[in-house]
Amino acid sequence: MADRCSVRAPAWTRRQVLLAGAAGAAVLGLSACGGSTDTTSTAAKPGAPFAQPTVLTSTNGRLEVTLKAEVGTVPYGDGTRFAYTYNGTSPGPTLRVRPGDTLIITLENHLDEPTNLHTHGLHVSPEGDSDNVFVQVDPGQSHTYTYVLPGDHRSSLCWYHPHHHGMVAPQLGGGLFGGIIIEDAIDQLPDLAGSTERLLVLADPKVGDSSSVLDVSGMQKMQGREGDAALVNGLDAPAIRAAAGSLERWRVLNASPSRYYRLALDGHRLQVIGTDGGRLAAPDPVDELLLAPGERTEVLVTPTKPGVFPLRTRGYDRGSPGMGGGMMGGGGGSTSSIDGQVLATMVVTGSASAAALPSSLVPEADLDAGVAGSERPIELAMGMGGGTGGMGGGMGGGGGMMSFSINGESFDANRTNIEVRAGDSEDWVITNTSSMDHPFHLHAWPFRVIERTSGPPDVPGWKDTVNVPANSTVTVRVPLTDITGRTVYHCHILDHEDQGMMGVIQVQ
Fold it and tell me: Which of 391, 399, 403 is nearest to 433 (CA)?
């Protein structure tokens, strides 16, 4: 696959270029194609040893687990911090299954508020006791979910988190999330069998010793909450120890409610081999990779020389809910991440030639989204007033109600917004009319990105979440195959979803 170093930089919007321009190459100590340069960085020191969540693996085609959602404390630095946890940890345990398996999860709600569970990325039924986001599990109650994975489910990194409307952002931001890894035969390819596989769950909790960390202002809800720390598996800048000549395989999940991560690894290129919905046809080399909330990626790294190499998130401006002197009382600060913030460090020992990369991963035919039979316009909007029904809306800085809507309607669980026939294929033309980026997520059915008018070029793979930059359009092709049922699509800035930027789809 072609090297995209030469085309990636011009794809940024003007506001992103202005934010990153002065600091980009200088901070990273790299050339314009610096990921390919073996440069030892001394800009960061290793933190605590890298550690991963507990892994629970299926046997004989079945994995049965209990997840207890409860209040607790988790380690942080030399002390602890308040968190919502699954089984006492955040992230919760990683669930490892294979195509054709049956996954059974009993969710016990030990919180003092309703919750439920969504298996983000699983191509399974969205009804009954499967991935049904309309289920409500009240305090002190439990619910057993049963997910039957298709025998041809693509190998991918999925994840689980709450999806009780109106409470998704605080519950996920509080710490309720965990990974689901779908294996298949590709994991045994000779070039991958000897790799060191790691799960990196990115989250940005607000740090404190009480439930007050869950409280956010009206303005923060409009913007989408961001926390105090950017952690990997709950750790602050952990040290990933690797040997030169080895092959590192990282599955990366953005489990933050609102924060974007523009990832770059000092001195190394990221060889992308998977996106939200599965593997690519071949490795795709990039110097940086933007992960919006809910997005996942799988990358290979080939260390060759000794040194300490920070994994950073470069600056990214996802916009502001402010619109001049009108919305939000004329304010609305820009939600820009810190340029060069270190998420982890790769500590390499020894010197050796780069490990071999696989030349192919899945057949090109597996990435064919077919031909769409029709187009469907989807408009994501924020504004004062407007929108109907549901629990949408929020308080603006000027005292008015702000609406969050899709195609002019805020979420109403009793209304079906889109009805389609099973087997149809559609192009969804998603237009963002607001001054903020919105990551768009569709449950149950993966899609391919066909074109966009703004933003970096898309890695060519199956997706279930795609970033739609402010004042731009992204077209995705959605084959509505295999599965029938009623579920949702929404903005994955979860405060926006909670306030109404969500709709209901029925496939029958």
Answer: 403
